[in-house]
Amino acid sequence: MNCPLCGTRRARRSCPALGQQICPVCCGTKRLVEIPCPADCGYLASAREHPASVVVRQQHRDVAFVAHAVRDFSDRQAELFFLVATTLAKHEPAALQPLFDDDVVDAMTALAGTFETSSRGVIYEHRATSLPAERLVAALKPLVTEAGRGLGSSFERDAASVLRRIAEAAREARAGDPSNRRAFLDVLGRVLARTGTPASAAEGADPAPPGETPRLIVP
């Protein structure tokens, strides 16, 4: 029997999450990214204890990619980055309307424009061009707005900078893996699934200004 995920390789592993047999390649590459593996999965436990060298190299590349994205952020900006990144990784698009990196770029650009305009005292909603991006904006805007409640225009400028950096990172990931329309989202999924919020990636971020206490809480 062929693997139901790839349709080409022999299904040889029993997947407790899917309730069916899948191939070892799909088990290894889609684990915790497309497959919601339970904590007691033997293959998951074995991979965490003895990761293959190719997996280790991928993990290092992923963390380096995220570290580069937050390279010059203040504590507040880094926390906001991970708040948005976690939301992106958990976002569930509408049926038959998958979310791709291009939608992330579209949504981040529109939302950044809205916060930039607001920081100048003008209320104007910049709109995304795709429906999945619009839905992503609708999910993110109240979350970011609540995180910055009472912090004024300085937070709005920070939010705009972070959102534009996320758009830039999504473009870079897409350019580095042109065949994968979810290259950036896959990086976020792997990093957050493995380590939660990867605090190590924020090392080197600028400290918050004196007297400023970051208020963001990463779920």
Describe this structure in words.
It is a single chain. By secondary structure, the chain is mostly helical. It folds into two domains: 13-49, no CATH class; 72-202, no CATH class. The chain has helices at residues 24-30, 42-49, 53-69, 75-90, 101-119, 131-147, 152-176, 183-195, and strands at 13-15, 20-22. The chain has a two-stranded antiparallel ribbon with strand order 1-2. Residues 198-219 have low confidence and may be disordered.
Compact summary:
With 219 residues, this protein is an all-alpha fold. The protein has helices at 24-30, 42-49, 53-69, 75-90, 101-119, 131-147, 152-176, 183-195; strands spanning 13-15, 20-22.
Helix and strand layout, with pairings?
Layout: E1 13-15, E2 20-22, H1 24-30, H2 42-49, H3 53-69, H4 75-90, H5 101-119, H6 131-147, H7 152-176, H8 183-195
Helix pairs in contact: 3-8, 4-6, 4-7, 4-8, 5-6, 5-7, 7-8
**Which percent range describes the beta-strand content?**
under 5%
The topology string of helices and strands comes to EEHHHHHHHH
Give the mean pLDDT: 86
How are the strands of the biggest sheet laid out side by side?
1-2
The separation of the N and C termini measures: 40 Å
Outline the low-pLDDT stretches: 198-219
* Total count of helical runs of at least 4 residues: 8
Radius of gyration: 19 Å
Q: Helicity level, as a percent range?
A: 55-70%
Structural class: mainly alpha
Q: Main β-sheet, in a few words?
A: 2 strands, antiparallel
How many individual domains?
A: 2
Total number of beta strands: 2
Question: What best-fitting shape do the alpha-carbon axes yield?
Answer: elongated
